[in-house]
Amino acid sequence: MSRFLRAFPVAGLIMLAAAGQAFAHAHLKASTPADKASAAAPAEINLGFTEALDLKFSGIAVVGADKTDVALGDAVLKDDGKTLAAPVSARLAPGAYTVNWHVLSVDGHKTNGSFTFTVTP
Ligand SMILES: [Cu+2]
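C-alpha cells for the assembled complex are given below, as produced in the milestone run.
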C-alpha cells in the first residue's frame, strides 16, 4: 500500500475501477467491409469486437449517401460471442455508405461508433 492509497482509499478504488473499465469495454476491432474500404457490394456486415456482446442490446444500421436506411436482416452473434453480423437484404448500389453500430458488452457497458465504406460499380 502506497502512502497515497492509505491517505485516499476512495480515490484509489476509483482509479482501479476506471482502469478496469478501460479494458473491459467492447471496441470495434475489425469489420467487413473494413473502415474506408472500397469493395463490391457486401452480402453481410460483420463487426468483430474486443469483448463478448449482449445481442439483445446491440445493433447495426447502414445508411446510404442519400440518408436512406439500408434494409438489413436480423443481427446475429457469432459463436465467439464477440462478432456481430447482419445480412444485407438487397444488393447495394455503388456509392458511399455509413455503418452505425451500438453494442452492450457483457460487463454492462455500452459503446457505439460508425465508419464508412464505398461500394464500387
Ligand atoms: Cu466496459
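Residues 26-119 form a domain with the Immunoglobulin-like fold (CATH 2.60.40.1220). The pocket of copper (II) ion is lined by residues 21, 24-25, 105, 107, 109 (CB under 6 Å). Further analysis is deferred to the final report.
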